[in-house]
Amino acid sequence: MYITSFYTINIILFIIIFLTKEVGEEMNISQVIIRIILSIIIGGLVGYNREYKNRPAGFRTHMLVCLGATIAALIQVQVGYFVLEEIAKNQAMSSILHVDVGRVICQVISGVGFLGAGAIIQTKGTVKGLTTAASMWAVAGVGIAIGMGFYVISILSGVSILIVLISLKKFEDRFIINTRNLSIEIRCKDLKALNEINDFFEEYQIKISNIESISEEVYQYKIEAPQFVTINEIISGLIANENISRVKEINYSC
């Protein structure tokens, strides 16, 4: 739904952009406002996706990262204009004044890298937050492009980031089988259930890593389940078997 709104916003922004000065002229207040608003919109849309997925860095974080990168780029551009003005006034200053266009931008990229590290969480042998960290880094790049006045690059990049986060996630879940380790405890009414459990796991492409017999009726399974199969689907599918009386997930505390 918000993708459709994003396209509508982009059309409006393109109209505004064409009504302002071209890139390369000294910035006026309208250009500064447009770039700041555009960075808030793109950063907010990417952040909304992360917030919706309940990730550590969400709506406001991505918005601030994009806005901060835009501000840094705006300062860099304005410093460049200032140096050019001084050189135009006094040609002798050309041997003294120099502008390193990439200096501030490089610091932004490296700084966001440290910020992204805070979104990465390692627990129980799994690593979470890599996509969120990458999205913050990408959003910072978009913010820099906006601040430098590269509107087409920034808008197309923002759309591309959203496509990767939303559409490709569905493709990944469907066609790329990434597994995760789970432990479940199953209480059986009949030993026939053991064969039926194996058939169920095979149907859902679940690999059995280990089976431990707790008692004559209770068994603990360590399994590798594809990402597209949720724990609720596994439990509900097993409990539907009349030869199984109870199924529960086992969470081992660190």
UniProtKB/TrEMBL annotation:
What keywords are annotated for this sequence in UniProt? Cell membrane, Membrane, Transmembrane, Transmembrane helix
Task: List, alphabetically, the Pfam families matched.
Answer: MgtC
GO CC list: plasma membrane
Q: Domain MgtC/SapB/SrpB/YhiD N-terminal: where? A: 37-173
The record lists the membrane-crossing segments as 6-23, 32-49, 61-84, 104-123, 135-168
Can you say where in the cell this protein is located?
Cell membrane
Membrane disposition: Multi-pass membrane protein
State where it is primarily located.
Answer: membrane
Q: Which InterPro entries match?
A: MgtC/SapB/SrpB/YhiD_fam (IPR003416), MgtC_SapB_SrpB_YhiD_N (IPR049177)
The family classification in the record reads:
Belongs to the MgtC/SapB family.
What name appears for this protein in its UniProt entry?
MgtC family protein
Organism, per UniProt?
Clostridium perfringens
- Gene transcribed to yield this protein: sapB_1
